[in-house]
Design goal:
Helices cover 43% and strands 21% of the residues. It is built from 11 helices and 32 strands. Strands 15-22-17-18-19 form a 5-stranded antiparallel β-sheet, with no helix packed on it. A 5-stranded antiparallel β-sheet has the order 24-32-27-28-29. Residues 93-328 form the Flagellar hook-associated protein FlgK helical domain.
C-alpha cells in the first residue's frame, strides 16, 4: 500500500511539472526568442524482490530546451546579412533617386549650359546670350553643390547612425556578459541547464547580429564568446571589449570604429561586416564616397577644361583684347596629413590641364619610408614608387592621372598623406565671371594672306593658312600687348632653295631679318603641315599653331596677328561649344554628360542588385526562421494536446493516491473490529 501511495505521488509530481512546463510554454508563445521546453521523464529505480522487480514510479530527469545550435547560428547569420542588404538598399536607393532625377539632377543643367555656350557661338556680340551663359553656368555650379549637399546630409546621417549603433553594440555586449555571468553561476550540471537564461542570451546575440555580423561559440562553463569582424573578440565570458568611435587619422570629422584593447584601441572599420552597422560602413566607404568623388571628377574635368580653353580666348571688356579669365572657381586638391606625421610640410598637388582626361575618381595615399615615396590608389590598390614608376618632369614635379605633385622639401620616415582630388570638388564650383562682356568668345589671333597698304593680297600660288590654335594663353596674351609679336604681326614668306626645297621665313613686324625658317615639305599638299610659332627663335612664349597647305609660289606671304577688332568673333566660343561634346574624360572616351550618365547607371545598377539580393535574402531569412520554429517554436495546438494528456495523467495519479487512501482506511477499519 505504501508502494502504491509513493508511486502515485511520483506520478502526481511528474505530471504537475509537465503541466507547469506546458503552461510556461503557452505563457511565452509571444516572447521573442523563447525556445519551447519539454519535460524529460524517467522511471524511478525499481525495488527488487525474490519474485522480480517492482516499479516505484517516475521522476523528472530534466526540463529540456528544444534548440539546435546549427539552426540558431543559421538564423543569426541570415539575420545579419539581411540587415546589411536592407540598409544598403535603403541608402543606395536615396542616392539613386537623387542623381537620376530628370529635373533636379545634373544632366539637365549640363545640357542647358552647353546650349548657352552654343548660343554665344552663334551670336557672340549678343549681350543677352552672354548673360544667359553666365546664368546657366552659375545654375550648373549650384546644381553640383546642391547634389553634393544632399550627399553630405546622407553622410552626416550615416555618421550619426554609426555612433548610435556602436553604442547599441556595446549595450548588447554588456547584457550578454551579464547573462553569461548568471549562466556560469547556475551551470553546475549541464543536464540541468538554465533554459530561460540561455534563451535570453540567444536573443541578445541575435539582436547583436542585426547590428553587426557575429561569430558565437559556447564555452565549457556554459558562457558564450562573441567575435565580430575578422575574429575580433567583443565578449569573452564576462569580459567585454567595447567598441569605440574614434576620429579618422586624416579626416577628424569622419568617425571610425575601433575595438578597445589593453594598450588603447585598434581600428577595425574595414573589418566590420554584416548587420546594419556593417551596411552603413560599406555604404559610406563605397557608394557614397564613390558617388561624391565621381560627381567631383565631372565638376573638376569640366572646370579645368573650360577654364583652360577660355584662357585661350580674349574679350574686349576694356576696348582692347584681354585674356579670358577662369570661367569657374573650383576647389583645390585636398591634401590631408596623417595625425601621427612628424614632418611639418605637405606635398603640393594640383590639376594637370593638359592631361585632365586622365583624372580618376579615386583618392591616393602617399607615404615616405625614409628613402622613397610610394603612392597607393585607394580604389585600385596599385602602388607606384615616385622616381621609378612615375618619373619627375624637368620642373621636378610628378605627373600622373591628371594631377601634378610636388614633394615637400623635408619629411620624416613614416609620414603619410591622403590626396583627394575630387571628393570636395562639387562644393567649390562657382561661376567666376560677373559681367557678360568678360566672356572670351574671340580668338586672340587671326591669320590670312598678307595684305598691302591698299588691303590687297599679292600671292600668286595656291597656298593657304588655317585658323590659329592657341596653346598657352598666358604667352599669347603677352604677345598682344604693345610691342608684342602679335601686336606687331608675324609674317611667313615662302621661298625655295637651290634644290627646290621650300620653306617659310618668319618675320616679326617690320624687321628686315627673319627670326627663323620653317621647312615646308608636306606629304600631302592639301593636308599641308602644322607649325607652332613658339619654336621660332624669340617667339618662345607665342604658343600659336597654324597649318600651311597648298602650293605657294616664292614670295607668297601669310600673316598671323592679334585680333584687335574681334568683338563679333566666335572662334573661341565655338571651341568651348565643341569641348562640351568632345570625349574629354576617361582618357578620351567620354564626354562630360556621358561620364555623369555612366555614374548614374552604375548607381542604378548597384541599387537594383542590392534590391534583388535583399529580396532573396528575405526568403532565406524566412526559411531560417521557419526551420528554427520547427524545433524551438511554441505550437499552441500541440501544447493544448499535451496539457490534456498531462491533466489526465495527473488525475490518474491522484486517483491512485485516493485508492491507496481507501485501502488504508479499510485496513484501519478492519483492525478496529
Amino acid at each position: 500500500m505504501v508502494d502504491i501511495l509513493q508511486t502515485g505521488i511520483t506520478g502526481l509530481r511528474a505530471s504537475q511539472r509537465a503541466l507547469a512546463t506546458t503552461s510556461h510554454n503557452i505563457s511565452n508563445v509571444n516572447t521573442e526568442g523563447y525556445s519551447r521546453q519539454r519535460v524529460e521523464q524517467e522511471t524511478n529505480p525499481p525495488q527488487y524482490h525474490p519474485r522480480g522487480a517492482m516499479g516505484t514510479g517516475a521522476h523528472v530527469e530534466t526540463v529540456q530546451r528544444l534548440s539546435e545550435e546549427t539552426r540558431v547560428e543559421a538564423l543569426r547569420r541570415n539575420q545579419a546579412e539581411f540587415e546589411r542588404l536592407d540598409t544598403l538598399k535603403e541608402m543606395t536607393g536615396r542616392i539613386d533617386n537623387l542623381v537620376a532625377d530628370k529635373d533636379a539632377g545634373i544632366s539637365p543643367a549640363l545640357r542647358a549650359f552647353s546650349s548657352a555656350i552654343e548660343e554665344v557661338a552663334n551670336d557672340p556680340a549678343n549681350t543677352v546670350a552672354r548673360q544667359e551663359l553666365l546664368t546657366k553656368g552659375q545654375a550648373l555650379a549650384d546644381r553640383f553643390e546642391r547634389i553634393d549637399n544632399r550627399l553630405l546630409e546622407l553622410q552626416s546621417d550615416v555618421n550619426k547612425r554609426v555612433r548610435l549603433q556602436a553604442e547599441q553594440v556595446n549595450g548588447l555586449a554588456e547584457s550578454i556578459a551579464e547573462v553569461n555571468s548568471a549562466i556560469r553561476k547556475r551551470w553546475h550540471d549541464p543536464q540541468q541547464p538554465p533554459n530561460d537564461l540561455l534563451d535570453q542570451r540567444d536573443q541578445k546575440v541575435r539582436e547583436l547580429a542585426e547590428l553587426v555580423g557575429v561569430n558565437a561559440r559556447v564555452q565549457g562553463d556554459g558562457t558564450v564568446s562573441v567575435a565580430i569582424g575578422n575574429g575580433q573578440p567583443l565578449v569573452n565570458g564576462t569580459q567585454v571589449n567595447d567598441l569605440e568611435v574614434v576620429e579618422n587619422a586624416y579626416t577628424p570629422e569622419r568617425p571610425e570604429i575601433a575595438l578597445e584593447v589593453e594598450d588603447g584601441h585598434r581600428q577595425i572599420t574595414d573589418a566590420v561586416q554584416g548587420g546594419s552597422l556593417g551596411g552603413l560602413l560599406e555604404f559610406r566607404g563605397g557608394v557614397l564616397d564613390e558617388t561624391r568623388s565621381e560627381i567631383g571628377r565631372v565638376a573638376n574635368s569640366l572646370a579645368v577644361s573650360l577654364n583652360a580653353q577660355h584662357a585661350r580666348g580674349v574679350h574686349y571688356a576694356n576696348g582692347r583684347p584681354e585674356q579670358g579669365g577662369a570661367l569657374f572657381e573650383r576647389a583645390e586638391v585636398q591634401v590631408q596629413a596623417h595625425a601621427d606625421n612628424r614632418g611639418g610640410a605637405a606635398p603640393e598637388v594640383g590639376y594637370d590641364a593638359e592631361r585632365i582626361g586622365e583624372l580618376e575618381a579615386q583618392g591616393y595615399r602617399l607615404r615616405y619610408d625614409g628613402s622613397q615615396w610610394q603612392l597607393r590608389g585607394l580604389g585600385d590598390g596599385e602602388v607606384r614608387t615616385l622616381g621609378e614608376d612615375i618619373e619627375a618632369g624637368e620642373d621636378g614635379a610628378y605627373r600622373f592621372d591628371g594631377l601634378v605633385l610636388r614633394l615637400p622639401a623635408q619629411a620624416e620616415a613614416g609620414d603619410r598623406f591622403q590626396i583627394q582630388p575630387n571628393r570636395e570638388a562639387a562644393q567649390g564650383l562657382e561661376m567666376r565671371l560677373s559681367r557678360p562682356e568678360q566672356v572670351a568668345a574671340a580668338a586672340p589671333a587671326v591669320s590670312g594672306e598678307a595684305l598691302t597698304a591698299k588691303g590687297q593680297s599679292q600671292n600668286t600660288g595656291s597656298g593657304a593658312i588655317g585658323s590659329p590654335e592657341v596653346g598657352d594663353g598666358d604667352g599669347v596674351a603677352a604677345a598682344l600687348k604693345d610691342g608684342g609679336a602679335l601686336e606687331r604681326g608675324v609674317e611667313l614668306e615662302y621661298a625655295e632653295g637651290e634644290q627646290g626645297q621650300g620653306y617659310f621665313e618668319v618675320y616679326v613686324g617690320d624687321e628686315s631679318a627673319p627670326r627663323g625658317r620653317l621647312e615646308y615639305a608636306p606629304e600631302d599638299a592639301e593636308a599641308g603641315q602644322r607649325y607652332n610659332l613658339s619654336g621660332v627663335e624669340g617667339l618662345g612664349g607665342l604658343d600659336v599653331s597654324v597649318r600651311l597647305s597648298g602650293s605657294p609660289d616664292p614670295g607668297d606671304r601669310f600673316q598671323v596677328e592679334g585680333n584687335y577688332e574681334g568683338v563679333g568673333d566666335n572662334a573661341n566660343a565655338l571651341r568651348m561649344a565643341e569641348l562640351m561634346d568632345e570625349t574629354v574624360m576617361d582618357g578620351g572616351n567620354s564626354t562630360f554628360q556621358e561620364a555623369y550618365s555612366a555614374m548614374v547607371g552604375e548607381v542604378g545598377g548597384f541599387t537594383q542588385r542590392v534590391q534583388t539580393n535583399r529580396d532573396a535574402q528575405q526568403a532565406l531569412l524566412d526559411q531560417a526562421e521557419k526551420q528554427w520554429e520547427e524545433v524551438s517554436g511554441v505550437n499552441l495546438d500541440e501544447e493544448a494536446a499535451n496539457m490534456m494528456e498531462y491533466q489526465q495523467a495527473y488525475q490518474a495519479a491522484a486517483q491512485i493516491i485516493t485508492t491507496a487512501d481507501e485501502i488504508f482506511q479499510q485496513m484501519l477499519s478492519a483492525v478496529r473490529r
